[in-house]
Amino acid sequence: MKALYFSGIHEYELRDVEKPQLRNDTDVIIKITLTTICGSDLHLIHGIIPSTPGYVLGHEYVGVVEEAGKAVKNFKEGDRVIGPPAPFCGCCENCIEGNISHCLNGGIHGSGKELGDLSGTHAEYIRVPFADSCLVHVPDVLEDEQVIFISDILTTGYTAAVRGKVSPGDTAVIFGAGPVGLCSVVAAKLFNPYRIIAVGRKDKFRMEMAKKLGATHVLSSEEEDAAGYVMNLTNGRGADAAIDASGSEIAIRQAVKSVKINGNVSLVGITGTDVSLPLSQVFMRNVNISMGLAYVGYMKRLISLVMSGQIDLRPLITHRMDLEQIEEAVKLFENRSENVIKIIIKP
Predict the structure, then answer these.
(1) What distance in Å separates the CA atoms of residue 216 and residue 171, rounded to the nearest whole number?
(2) Are 198 and 172 in contact (CB under 8 A)?
(3) Which of 15, 30, 32, 268 is in Cβ range 3.0-4.6 Å of 160 for a Cys bridge?
(4) 3-state SS of 194-231?
């Protein structure tokens, strides 16, 4: 089968690889009908996330079950499904305690042997373990494009809003206008805040998209002091909640400075390195900080919100390409030579 193969640091190519096979009775083989390029793919390609090259990339997908292990009870051949980037068994100590993103028996698709050696989604087929625990049925009334972002960037944005405790009447400020930041705007809007302030850098296209998706205010951190802007807008009180979806140390520090006394800061952007925080301000102003991996257990809830029409992320799709074009797609996503938010790939 054809797949995007990570052959070495800064190197990748579309090549023929062996089609995955069932290894365990709880596995399924899924025919990929849609996948999408993620910033994490670039982090792996360039060694920001350490891994040993020699695997197929990708971790977001919509697909159809082609074959199911004999122990799989909830899914059969022909079922349309989505699944999390990090499959989970549902029965280990971490899963039982609700920490399914840290499953002791799992891993992350398309991230190498260090992270479970699970087949990547930038391919025609993948093997998914623990199917009954982690896969979710896609209702017939929904198209692939309506659900492709649920398992990763939308789950992350929704987790950020929940951990940030965004509530009706709040002022919420979101740092980062990339795919996760834009999903955080969509997620925050679900909780009926009074204001949603989206802070980007210099990509006017993405900031305009934030406004279309529900941001009431947008600004460039390169043109204005974000924390000062928030304080002026709130008459010196500060935002109730701040979300950082960028992973930038500058943005994280601004998020801490922009919230009110006893405000909430939710960090979901991957930093890739250690950062310093103004802990004296955090302490003296009782700022609450939460961070970490998204809770993929929200997938079923998010499908319901898509079904109800409260979420529609199709505007994030700026490019549609075939698997044969995926090398070009990765370059376009990284270099942003055009107005790019998300590129979807159809095998």
Answers:
(1) 10
(2) no
(3) 268
(4) CEEEEEECCCHHHHHHHHHHCCCEEEECCCCCHHHHHH
Helix-strand-coil percent breakdown of the chain, rounded to 5? 30, 25, 40
Q: What is the mean pLDDT of each run of 10 residues along the chain (347 residues)?
A: 97 97 98 96 93 97 98 98 97 97 96 94 98 97 98 98 98 97 98 98 93 97 94 97 95 96 95 84 94 95 98 98 98 93 97
The strand ranges marked E within 9-54 are: 11-16, 28-36
The continuous run of DSSP H or E covering 322 comes out as: strand 317-322
Among left, alpha and beta (phi > 0; psi -120 to 50; other), residue 182 is: alpha
Report how far apart, in Å, the C-alpha atoms of 76 and of each of 28, 67, 73, 219, 273 are: 9, 7, 8, 48, 42
Query: What 3-state class would DSSP assign to 158?
Result: helix
pTM of the model: 0.96
Q: Which amino acid belongs to residue 81?
A: V
